[in-house]
Every structure is written in structure tokens, then in C-alpha cells.
Structure of Nucleoside-diphosphate-sugar epimerase:
Amino acid sequence: MILVTGATGLVGSHLLVKLLQENEVVRAIYREEKSLVAVQNVFKYYNEINLFDKIEWIKADINDVPSLEIAFHNITRVYHCAAFISFDPKDEEQLFKVNIEGTANIVNCCIDFGIDKLCYVSSVAALGEATNSNLIITEETEWNPEKPRNEYAISKYAGEMEVWRGYQEGLKVVIVNPDVIFGYGFPNNGSSSAINAIKKGNPFYTKGKFGIVAVEDLVNCMTKLMNSSISGERYTIVAENITFQEGLNAIADALKLKRPFIYASKGLTSIAWRLDWFLSLLLRKKRILTRLTAKSSHSLAEYDTTKIKTTLGYDFVDMKEYLKKLLINF
């Protein structure tokens, strides 16, 4: 039996569909009953609602070891998709608790229960950083602890360290490192923020680069890696490297809305993150833009996906066509 954590999120819900289509026996973790509605909608999207009833749901929390131990009974493989995503420095405590302590709990249970293999969904934020002389980031790019990092990146890197600890203790593992993930469902989370920004008439763009990938490609790579003999490896999962301008324009064109038309220079984003900091204090709201996220919006670094393409012989979908189809149903 397979256990999926983070099953009520974007990656976890699409992974459930994929696993059940492959006739796997699946147990999935949830925390709140209402979160299951979004998962049902994903199954409806694939016309696979009949498969939803085959999931064995169990109420548990990755930071609650007793409930995890119950969830791990009779499990052979684990997909750890659960994570907390935030770039607000105020969320440091929760980021570390979920992404580090929670992952440590999963790894410990995998070892204690003799799990065959663990797949950990990490992030490109846990990869090394590009330099002025080398803008290409691979799985081997060195992580420099002296470089300033946001709390989310630190938490995902430390989460990976917990997984590698498990590997050293004999647990078979694979790690995937996606960047921005697009997929059906969850219109208020993750990559959907860019779509919502365009719908609200956001006029700003930058020319920095980021990686995008379809959630279907991500879960395909995950299941292929788990069904292989591969262990002790991590893979960057990115379909394309595009500029923020290109990404926002593609979304605007698909929605038949106005493209962003004001270039947000480094100077403008520098002012913007300071203003956002002030408003967050004044209005007690979450940060939208920080100094580090403002800086990254101008980065020209690209992610190299040679390793996953070579290992699996995998071809990613055309993201422009994918976005067109996705936004019809957004």
C-alpha cells in the first residue's frame, strides 16, 4: 500500500489520480474534512470520480507522531508531498516545523516501519545558487550557506537533509525539485496567484526568469522514479525556463486580457518591497514581496533538466499550449 502526505494539495491530489489509474492501493492523509472537496473536483476534472472512493483516507498530521504511526501501518512506499509554502519571514516558525520537523517525522516513520522507498517533493529553492559566471543551475550546484536565503528555501534544504539522513540509514529515496507548478484546481494557491494577478489587472512585469512545469509531468516523473530501481538521487523537474514577462503575457493572452505593460525595474521593486513591509506592519497582513523575492524576480538563472530527461527519456508538455487548455477551466 502507498501512503501520500499532502494529499489534499495540488501535487498530492493529482498524484492520487495517477496512482489509482495505475491500480495502486492508496492511503492518503488529510487534516480537515472540507479539504476533500477540492480533491474530488480534481478527480471530476479527469472524469475519474469513481476512483476517488477507492482512497483510504486517514486523519493525521505530519507533526503528530502518534497519528502518523497509525497511518504507516501496512505501508510499503511513501510520497511525501506535504509542505508549508510562504515567503513571509513572519512564518519562519511554521515553515521550520512543517518542512523540517514534519519531514524528519516522515523519515523516522519510514525507517521504523521498514518502508521500501520514499519520494520527497522538495523545491528548486533547495538547489544551489547561480553565479555571475554560471547562470545554469543543476542538481550538483553547490549550496552556499553564506548566501542570503529566504526561510522557505532554508526549510526545504533542511528537509532534504533529513531525507539524506534516512538514505544514510538504509532508506531508499528519490527527491524531486520542481519550480512553479501549474495544474487544475486550487485557484487561490501557488501558481494561481499569477493568474489571479492578471485577472485583477496587474500592470507590472520583470524580465527575470523562473521555471514552470505541469503538475501532470511532475507526478509522472515521480511515479516513474518510484517504480524504478533508482535511489539516492534528486532531479530538477522543470519543463521550461521563461521570463516573468513571457509567463504573464501567456496567461493574459489565454484569458484574453490586457498584458502587463509597466516594466518593474530593480529600483522599482526595491521601493515596492519596502512599501510592502511597511503596509504589512501597519495593516498586520502577510508579506507579498520581500527583499529576496524582489531580487529573485530579476534573476536570469536557468534550471538544467538534462538529468531527468536522460534518466527517464522524458519529454515535457508544451507549456504554452498547456496553459491555454488549463485556463479554459480555471
About this structure: The mean pLDDT is 93. The chain has one domain: 2-185+208-241+301-321. The radius of gyration is 20 Å.
